[in-house]
Amino acid sequence: MNESDLVLLDRPNPPANRAWCSDENEPVLTVNLANYIKPTAVSYQHFKWNRTVPYGSPRLFHVFACLDFNCEKTEPLISNCEYKSSGQIQEQIYPIPLNSTTKSIGKVQFRFLKNHGNVKKTCVSLVRVYGQSEDVPKIRENKGHRASCSYLRDTYHNSPFIYDRFEFKTCERLFSNGCCSVCPECCDECYIGSYTFIEYFILSILCFVAGLFGLFVFWCCLTMLLSGLKYLLHLCGITINTKWF
């Protein structure tokens, strides 16, 4: 059942008939966050229930941070979160360990392992992600960043090859410089592991060496061409000023 367009965030009273459901054995739900945050806790809240959690509601799940746009690279935030039927607590919060090294992220992934009743279909009502947003850059410091953000936006749309290969576009840089308001599409497709300064330095050295090699080949070809021309002129009995060769 494809309900990927349903909004599962910020719903005060999740309706029972508007849940994200899946028949998969261990369904996975990926959520885009409104802002890049350093996560501190996650929570789950099923639609209103009394005494017993309905069958099919999540019982045990893991939460992962997405490190790239397609969530192909992840790292665990918290494991074995259990939604309990005891205590009549509708929203149950699971703090992320304080020793977590996860930086600012814009996407999380919930992996549901078991549901209540061990039935075939799992239905998810409401998930929340709590966290701390980065400090907003000061206005004086932001003027120069705005210009660079505009440049990145223009490059993103007009020169995608250059943007993809030669621009510093890590999520940390885009977010800390306030580029998400200028180019939200850049932030949507940013990479945690984009090129580092060392990689750019090595790439520059390789380009420089390749340029020198190209000049050397050009000089060799030019020398051979001039030597051949000189030989042909000699066969034709044409005397030339040899100092030019």
From TrEMBL:
**GO terms for cellular component:** meiotic nuclear membrane microtubule tethering complex
Q: Where are the transmembrane segments?
A: 200-226
Q: Name one Pfam family in it.
A: Sad1_UNC
InterPro entries named among the record's database cross-references = SUN1-5, SUN_dom
Task: Report keywords, A-Z.
Answer: Membrane, Transmembrane, Transmembrane helix
Q: Where in the cell is it found?
A: Membrane
User: Which GO-annotated molecular functions does the record name?
Assistant: protein-membrane adaptor activity
Record's signal peptide? none
| SUN domain boundaries | 1-134
Output this protein's name.
SUN domain-containing protein
Read off the lineage from the record.
Eukaryota, Metazoa, Ecdysozoa, Nematoda, Chromadorea
